[in-house]
Amino acid sequence: MSASQPPQPPSSPEPSEPSEPPEPRRVDGSGDASSDGPPPGGDAPTLLVKIFGKDRPGITAGLFDTLAAYAVDVVDIEQVVTRGRIVLCALVTAPTAGGTTEGDLRATVHSWADSLKLQAEIISGIGDNRPRGDGRSHVTVLGHPLTAESTAAIAATITSTGGNIDRVFRLAKYPVTAVEFAVSGTGTAELRTALATEAAEIGVDVAVVSAGLSRRAQRLVVMDVDSTLIQDEVIELFAAHAGCEAEVAEVTEQAMRGELDFEQSLHARVSLLAGLDASVVEKVRAEVRLTPGARTLIRTLKRLGYQVGVVSGGFTQVTDGLKEELGLDFASANTLEVVDGRFTGRVVGEVVDRAGKARLLRSFAEQAGVPLAQTVAIGDGANDLDMLNTAGLGVAFNAKPMVREAAHTAVNVPFLDTVLYLLGITREEVEAADGLVD
User: Where are the alpha helices (DSSP H) in 203-315?
Assistant: First the structure.
């Protein structure tokens, strides 16, 4: 608010990040009111006071000090600051103080605004905002960059479904531009379907989630490892040390052609590692490259009280190290059998395949005490599809086309921490979390 923020220097090109304002209190019967009595406004005359101009400390306090002389009640407030320019809207009841009129209030507000070289507009009306339509959703749009053309297309698609854009604000300006639309008047599922088609055509990433308290509740985030949490395919790193890269690649191609299922291809590739000295595990762990933004994603989620896990068709010899290094709550993968210090070419225990990943997501959620509706799954391959569809929000991360089409939403930029914006976490909150002491 202007009462506490220092003015932005004129030379600064960067805008202030507006915080999401609280849901306005409805006074027209469309929302809950205090049990102490009817809300202010009702069907009585109200005034919308709009102030805009160069931001500086004290504007918000000054406006309401001015209005206080007329004994008005505050019905609604909205404020945003963009590149040092403030837009402040106050919906108040008409003046009731003895002997004062609406004209007196108008003259006083305009005089106060003129003294600060601000502009004022006052609009007469009745009651509060019109009721919001049924069905409320948050639409997050990621662009790199976010163009006016793509923004227009998203807004038009929302309108075409019967939705109304109630509020728009920026979540982040880097590493991508992320904005969120608060939408009412249409169902989340219908909106998600329409926007998924549009987003694919215009080349932006869009996530649609239902509005409600659960969005800010504690969640569980579970992600795939190979080509998601890390940039590598772990079996290929082991194959490079065993000198069988070409053979492993051929088995992978067979699986992609549908000639082998995941379990068959896993056993075929692992058999090629038979005889490899198990000491190579430390070398492979050192070669693993985290995806850009992976540390930020996990660190931020953990500091905000989320639980985080990984499931992998790869190997515990690597995921155990990642769990320790990144402070993960859960980790599960296949285990390479070792006898006399060498790999046998076999895996031990139950295979973590496509169905296994979904099963583990359910297990992690139960252990974490988190409903499946509040889980998030992130993956890139067909092997992740069951997990993505089981989670409350399934995110296809730089995924193959069939996975993007089947998931709830897709992220097609190479920064894993952009998933935070899909959860409604702003860049400012990420930086604030970084300032916390673990």
Answer: 234-242, 245-256, 262-271, 280-287, 294-303
Distance from the Cα of residue 234 to its chain's centroid: 28
Q: Tell me how far apart the alpha carbons of residues 375 and 186 are, in angstroms, rounded to a whole number.
A: 24
> Which pTM does this prediction carry?
0.79
Average pLDDT, the chain: 88
Q: What does DSSP assign to residue 119?
A: E
User: How far apart are alpha carbons 167 and 20 in whole angstroms?
Assistant: 9
Task: Answer whether residue 48 shows pLDDT above 70.
Answer: yes
Whole-angstrom distance, CA of residue 347 vs CA of residue 380: 23
For 182, phi then psi, to 5°, come to -90, 120
pLDDT digits (tens, 9 = 90+) for 7-46: 343 333 333 333 343 343 333 333 343 444 455 556 789 9
Phi, psi of 48 (to 5 degrees): -95, 110
Token pair 């075929």 is at which residue?
268
Please identify every residue annotated as catalytic. Answer: 224, 226
* 349 phi, psi to nearest 5 deg: 85, -175
